[in-house]
Amino acid sequence: MFSSLHEIFRGLDRLVYPPTCLLCSSPFDRQTSHSLCTSCERSIINDSVPTCRRCCSTIGPHVAAEDGCDKCRTERFQFEGAMRLGSYDGPLREAIISMKDQSGEILAETLGSIWAGRDREKFLFLAIDVLIPIPLHWSRRIVRGYSQPSAIAHSMADVLNTPCHDNWLKRTRRTPKQFTQSPAMRRENLKNAFQVTRRCQVKDRRVMLVDDVLTTGATCHEAARALKAAGAAQVWAAVLAHR
Ligand SMILES: [Zn+2]
Ligand SMILES: [Zn+2]
After folding, report:
1. CATH match for 49-242 among 3.40.50.2020, 3.40.50.10490, 3.30.310.10, 3.90.650.10
2. Residues whose Cβ atom is located within 5 A of ion ligand 2
3. C-alpha 228 – ligand 2 centre gap (Å)
4. Separation between Cα atoms, residue 93 and residue 76, nearest integer Å
5. Closest ligand, as measured to the CA of 43
6. For the segment 203-231, what is each residue's pLDDT rounded down to a tens digit?
7. Residues in domain Phosphoribosyltransferase (predicted)?
8. Residue 41 near residue 68 (C-beta atoms within 8 A)
9. Which of 44, 22, 76 is nearest to 187 (CA)?
10. What percent of the chain has pLDDT over 70?
């Protein structure tokens, strides 16, 4: 009874306030839990260009990138490789920018679930035991009202049916925003910026770190270093986009 009343009210609500796309505000009539119109969703999902398996940046069609690409070949990452939803442009870039305040939480969840749906086979192939979002420093989390890596990771975990723990890793200090720094400064500032917590149980497990963007890879590298020191068997990185 309650459920049918709920459905009726939901239907009425949709009639009076038709759902609109979170990115372009155009109305759409799909009965799905997603919050994007078909056109925005299609453009975000469509990432058909080849990417580097180590750092997930876009590479040319005939580039040999077995040992990484020009951007990452000289880097010594603690993570095994990186996967992405798409490149940092168009609606995906807009979505990532919009996620920076609290109203972006639904957007972050939507992107996580459409990504996990699209790449389900790839994620399952890696036999990941646990998803761990890159933690924000507590002060940044308070200002933002939520953590976007955590929202993305939890919605991916629901689709993949994989555990997700956002209290196994913590950021020990606040680091400056990355676009204000050179890559060398960034690496230096992030050194030992992450620590596993007492709850963390990653020994012999395969971990997928989740973040919104990957630039130099320094953040995922440092987080992976902390997890490997705690015994993780493998650490992979999953980011919405390579910037
Ligand atoms: Zn749209
Ligand atoms: Zn690369």
Report:
1. 3.40.50.2020
2. 52, 54-55, 68-69, 71-72
3. 21
4. 27
5. 1
6. 999 999 999 999 999 999 999 999 999 99
7. 170-241
8. no
9. 76
10. 89
